[in-house]
Design a protein that fits this description.
The protein is an alpha/beta fold and about 375 residues long. Helices cover about 40% and strands about 10% of the residues. Helix 1 runs parallel beside helix 10 (about 215-230) and helix 13 (about 305-315) runs parallel beside helix 14 (about 365-375). The longest helix is centred in the middle third of the chain and has 19 residues, at about 215-230.
Length: about 375
C-alpha cells in the first residue's frame, strides 16, 4: 500500500491507495489541472442557489429511451413545469450506447435538449456514466414496464462486460472526449457529473449479476474519466458523487471509488435520502474539503427526506439541491425501492419520489407552494 497525504484542501487527508490504483491516480492528476478550492468557490459565488431535479421525461423508461425516442413535446411541457416552481437546473443522464449507435443524432438531440433548457432558464448538470440498475444494457433490448416496480427499466452505462475489462474501459475514451469536445465550453451546461454511483452493488435488484469487485473496477473508470476529461479541459466543473457511508472525513472508511471522487472532483457532490440530521452531518463533513457542495440526489418521502425537512437546509447552506424525479411516468419512481422485492399495485402512500402527476397537477400542493416560496427570489445561474 502507498500512503498519500494531501493538505491542499485545507484539512489533512490521508488516503491509502493500492499500487495499481496509484498508477491510474497519478495519471489522472497529471493529465490537467484540477480546479483549486479558490477557483471552485469563485465559480460557486457566481451561481445563485442551484435547485432542481433529476430529470427523465415521463414517457421514457430509461436514458436510452429518452435519447432514442426524444419526445420533444413532453420534454418541453415538463421543463415548463420545472421552471414554474423556480427550478434553475436539472441533472440528466447520457448513455454511451446512444453515442456509439448514432453519434450525430445523439448530439443533435442533446443540443436540442439544451436549447429547450435555455428557453426555460435551466442549466443542466450532465451525467456521462451510471452504475445503477440493469448491468447489461443493449441497444436492441426494449425494456417492458414492470407494474409497481421502482425504476424497472433503468440501465447502467457502461454495462458490466465493459466495466470488468481494462481494455474495454479504454475504448470508452473516444466517447468522453467526443462529448466534452462538443459541449465542454457550452455555456448552457452547468457542469459534468462523470459517473453516477459508480460502485453501487444494486443489492436489492440486480445484485447477483453484479461484478464481485465492482468498487475496484468502477474506481478505475472514475480515474480514467477524470483523466480523459482533463485532457479536453472543459470550462465547466467536474464531479463524481459519494453516495453511501457514514463518515466521509475518515479515509479509513472510504473505498477506492470514494477516494477518487473526493480527491479529483472540482466541486464535491453527494447523495442523501435520509432525514435532516443526516443531511446536516454530511454537509458538515464534506464542507471540510473546502469546496462547493451539490446534493445531486435527495427526497424520499418515506425515509424522512422531504422537501419540508431538507430543502430549507440546503438553501441555508447554499448546497445545490437535486431531488429525484419531476413528473410521474414510466420510470415509476413514485414507488419505493422495496418494490423490487414486492411490487406495489395501485397508488403508493406516500409517493417515494416525483412532484407532479402526468397531468401536471402537483402530488402535494403544499410542497409546490413551499418550493416556490424558497425559489421566488432566485435568478438564472450565470455562466462565469
Amino acid at each position: 500500500m502507498l500512503l498519500r497525504r494531501n493538505f491542499s484542501q485545507g484539512v489533512p487527508c490521508v488516503v491509502l491507495l493500492t499500487v495499481a490504483t496509484f498508477i491510474f491516480f497519478s495519471a489522472a492528476l497529471n493529465a490537467a489541472e484540477r480546479w483549486t478550492p479558490e477557483q471552485a468557490n469563485a465559480w460557486h459565488a457566481n451561481q445563485p442557489w442551484l435547485v432542481g431535479c433529476n430529470f427523465v421525461p415521463s414517457t421514457a423508461i430509461n436514458q436510452l429511451d429518452m435519447w432514442n425516442d426524444f419526445d420533444r413535446a413532453t420534454i418541453e411541457r415538463e421543463l415548463d413545469l420545472a421552471e414554474s416552481i423556480g427550478f434553475n437546473t436539472v441533472r440528466v443522464f447520457l448513455h454511451d450506447i446512444c453515442w456509439r449507435e448514432n453519434k450525430e443524432q445523439f448530439f443533435d438531440r442533446v443540443d436540442e435538449f439544451l436549447s429547450i433548457c435555455t428557453k426555460h432558464k435551466i442549466r443542466p448538470l450532465i451525467v456521462i456514466f451510471d452504475g445503477v440498475w440493469d448491468p447489461d444494457p443493449r441497444p436492441t433490448l426494449i425494456h417492458q414496464l414492470r407494474p409497481g416496480v421502482h425504476n424497472s427499466g433503468w440501465v447502467q452505462s457502461p454495462g458490466r462486460v465493459i466495466l470488468a475489462n481494462d481494455e474495454k474501459q479504454e475504448q470508452l475514451k473516444p466517447y468522453v472526449i467526443d462529448v466534452l469536445k462538443r459541449f465542454g465550453t457550452d455555456e448552457r451546461i452547468l457542469g459534468w457529473d462523470l459517473f453516477n454511483e459508480p460502485d453501487n452493488p444494486n443489492g436489492g435488484s440486480y445484485g447477483p449479476l453484479e461484478l464481485k469487485d465492482k468498487d475496484a473496477a468502477a474506481a478505475k473508470l472514475v480515474l480514467r474519466s477524470f483523466q480523459w476529461a482533463r485532457e479536453v479541459g472543459p470550462s465547466q466543473p467536474l464531479t463524481v458523487g459519494v453516495w453511501h457511508g457514514d463518515d466521509f472525513s475518515d479515509p479509513a472508511k472510504l473505498n477506492e471509488t470514494q477516494k477518487a471522487a473526493l480527491e479529483l472532483s472540482d466541486v464535491i457532490s453527494f447523495h442523501n435520502y435520509s432525514g435532516p440530521e443526516s443531511m446536516e452531518y454530511n454537509i458538515k463533513q464534506l464542507s471540510a474539503y473546502g469546496r462547493p457542495l451539490l446534493c445531486t440526489e435527495f427526497m424520499a418521502r418515506g425515509n424522512g427526506s422531504t422537501f419540508e425537512a431538507i430543502l430549507p437546509i440546503l438553501k441555508r447552506e447554499k448546497v445545490g439541491a437535486y431531488c429525484w424525479g419531476l413528473v410521474d411516468g414510466k420510470s415509476q419512481t413514485k414507488y419505493p425501492w422495496a418494490t423490487w422485492q414486492t411490487p406495489e399495485l395501485g397508488e403508493p402512500d406516500p409517493w417515494h419520489h416525483d412532484i407532479f402527476h402526468t397531468s401536471g397537477e402537483p402530488y402535494r400542493s403544499s410542497e409546490v407552494t413551499m418550493i416556490r416560496k424558497l425559489t421566488s427570489q432566485l435568478t438564472h445561474p450565470t455562466s462565469k
